[in-house]
Write a structure and sequence with these properties.
- The structure is a single chain.
- By secondary structure, the chain is of the alpha+beta class.
- It is 23% helix and 27% strand.
- The protein is built from five helices and 14 strands.
- It has a six-stranded mixed sheet.
- Strand 3 and strand 4 form a beta hairpin.
- The longest helix has 23 residues.
- The protein binds one DNA strand through loops.
Length: 257
DNA sequence: ATGGCTGCTTTGAGCAGA
């Protein structure tokens, strides 16, 4: 089973890239973030023609998350339970029937800068996510959390750790929140394997950052402990970042036996 | 060098992203 996550930075603009990528990779599941679409504008028809069902928690202009799957998507939930939030950042579904996995697709807040109200919202959101996932892991032992975490967990996930030290995406409270997710009983799938040095999933559009590999690893796939023995591979696919008019994020993939 | 791109917005300068 192949699952992936990709922040597409507007599905309206990126739909051709998504369709090409689905055709090339044929993942069983693809989680999308930043669709920036209302549900009524979501391209269900085009995706169905490509062989994918979809569920979407949409919103105009900002945020918006979706799960695409070749098989049925069951028990769909939107948002974090007991956390009132108009921003559409979380959608979850069970894929693969009775023996299926629970897929949680999330677009974590960016936080803007550590002195911003948005940063305080990010920390509250992270705390609410942890509390909710603790319950969800008890309910669904075969859970995966995939998405744009907007957190670079360690200095090796940052092209210039000195410049980013203490900044939003790298600050210690954010990294603590990331580690807290691991202590709930999850593993960073990417770090289960040997990986190339300077592996990143996001590069700024400016200053030729991609060409210089000035990036951050902020898109992640966490696996519940019980899934770890089934994990065969995890990688970042940089091919879409090289295309014309790319998303600033690259997809991350995981393979489960 | 505090910008540099990109996408979006009651269309055009400003916000947000990361």
């Amino acid at each position: 089973m192949k699952l992936a996550t990709w922040n597409v930075n507007s599905l309206r603009v990126r739909l051709p890239h998504v369709l090409d990528w689905l055709a090339a990779q044929r993942p069983d599941v693809l989680c999308l973030q930043e669709t920036k679409l209302e549900d009524i504008a979501f391209p269900f028809v085009e995706l169905e023609a490509a062989g994918y069902r979809a569920v979407h928690a949409g919103q105009r202009t900002y945020n918006g998350v979706a799960i695409l799957a070749r098989d049925e998507l069951a028990d769909v939930t939107r948002g974090i339970a007991d956390f009132d939030d108009p921003q559409q950042r979380v959608i979850a579904a069970t894929v693969g029937g009775v023996s299926g996995v629970r897929v949680v697709c999330a677009y974590f807040p960016n936080g803007q800068s550590i002195d911003s109200d948005k940063y305080q919202y990010k920390l509250k959101w992270l705390a609410a996510l942890s509390a909710w996932l603790k319950q969800e892991l008890a309910r669904h032992p075969d859970l995966l959390l995939l998405g744009d975490f907007n957190v670079a967990p360690e200095d090796r996930d940052v092209h210039d750790p000195a410049a980013w030290k203490g900044q939003v995406l790298c600050s210690e409270p954010e990294r603590e929140a990331f580690r807290r997710l691991l202590t709930l009983g999850m593993a960073d799938a990417f770090r289960l394997f040997e990986q190339p040095e300077k592996s990143y999933t996001w590069w700024d559009y400016r200053m030729m950052a991609y060409r210089r590999n000035n990036g951050l690893r902020i898109d992640h796939i966490l696996l519940a402990s019980g899934l770890v023995p089934r994990c065969r591979a995890c990688s970042i696919d940089c091919a879409p970042r090289k295309l014309e008019r790319p998303s600033d994020h690259a997809p991350v993939l995981v393979e489960l036996a």
